[in-house]
Model the fold of this input.
Amino acid sequence: MPSRSGREHAQPLYPTEVWECTNEDCPCWMRKGLTFEEQPKCPMCGSEMMPGERMLPRVSDKEPR
Done:
């Protein structure tokens, strides 16, 4: 988030489990901890999703460390 001086504060990034769309033309991904299905379909194109990992900031203190 930008500060008053216009510079962004760097947030620490953590390895985070995600679901990634298998369709090469679709950029969709979502955090595993925020999905309701065991094996979700892509909400944008309907393709299968596969597990992956991204470096992301935590969204809450309840997220696994």
Notes: Residues 13-57 form one domain. The longest strand covers residues 14-21. The chain has a mean pLDDT of 89.
